[in-house]
Amino acid sequence: MGCCQSGARVYGGDRYAVQVNRSIDYQNRESFRREQQKNKVLLLGTGDSGKSTFFKQMKILHGVRLTKEERYHQTLRVFRDIIYCAKVLVRQAQALGVFHEIQCPEVAKAVAALDENLEPSVETGRAIQQVWRDPCIQRVWEQRHHFDVVYDISDSVRYFLDRLEQVMQPSYLASQHDLLYARTRTSGVVTQGFSVEGRVIELYDVGGQRNERRKWIHHFDNVTAVIFVASLAEFDQRLFEDSTKNRMVEALELWEDVCENAHLRGAALVLFLNKRDLFLEKMGLSKIGAVPEWGDFPGPEGDPVAGAKFFLEKFLQRSAQRCPDRVVVHHITCATDTENIRVVFDAIKDKILLGSLEKSGLL
């Protein structure tokens, strides 16, 4: 009898082990199936290219809303950016020797002395607005890309400077649309999942500054597509990290690295030449051929179509050299324009989903 009882216990243990193994196998199959349905898309590019704005747009387009607390904390950053920018413009007027041309010198001096952590108020807003509207300060603003790199002013802060009466109200809370224009420097990696035509797209926004790029390699496994974002408007600007390096040259070199990276050989390549609006504005202020790095620009100067084509060819030449067998999908974009990003994403999503099917062996 003792032997029978012992045998029953062994048999029961075996049956339990079989059930556990089946459960583990099922979980593994489900995990594999979910991974195959997931499309991992990396947003890569240099700092200030606008890729984080594209990331914000994707959240808007797919119904992902910021909480009131998130909007509050980002609104505080907007206030700091406004005050910082106003102070820099006044100081640069002094550095350029044109401060005497300012029509409200006493107000300008008061603005230059503001604490960047000051709480928003109507009075502060009026003072900054008076300085901002001054013709001398507007001329200084037009020269902002030639400031010393330590004065790192975001182009998009103009959106808020033009709306100071609203923005500097103590009750102001930035909307999700407003925050498209707020500078967001990505530190580390930010991810967001979206469902597109029954498949999951996991979008990874990875920091673009030089000190962030060493983290990229940890996210290069099993990538469906890479969206590389470069700013057209930075052709005449220098890196914050290295004042001797042209920003567009840095973007081209980084694009080469992405194209020839062995971990990304199976990923679809998408190129966004971004900040179309700022590039168009700059065509009346800066000559491409006058920048030493772009002396081969054939012209005509001031023509944004010719300029965009020139830089697009630079990128496509690099990818043709580094990965001649791969097709690069490319678009000229304005990341702050929701409708533009909607159209562009509709155009590239089939490429992303097709890449997913090829990766899973279904094509």
TrEMBL record:
SMART domains in UniProt: G_alpha
Record GO cellular component, one term: heterotrimeric G-protein complex
Keyword list, A-Z: GTP-binding, Magnesium, Metal-binding, Nucleotide-binding, Transducer
Listed GO biological process terms: adenylate cyclase-modulating G protein-coupled receptor signaling pathway
Annotated GTP binding sites: 155-156, 180-186, 205-209, 274-277, 335
InterPro entries: Gprotein_alpha_su, GproteinA_insert, P-loop_NTPase
A Pfam family assignment: G-alpha
Molecular function per GO: G protein-coupled receptor binding; G-protein beta/gamma-subunit complex binding; GTP binding; GTPase activity; metal ion binding
Residues reported to bind Mg(2+): S52, T186
Gene3D superfamilies: GI Alpha 1, domain 2-like, P-loop containing nucleotide triphosphate hydrolases
SUPFAM superfamilies: P-loop containing nucleoside triphosphate hydrolases, Transducin (alpha subunit), insertion domain
Bilayer-crossing regions: none
Protein known as: Uncharacterized protein
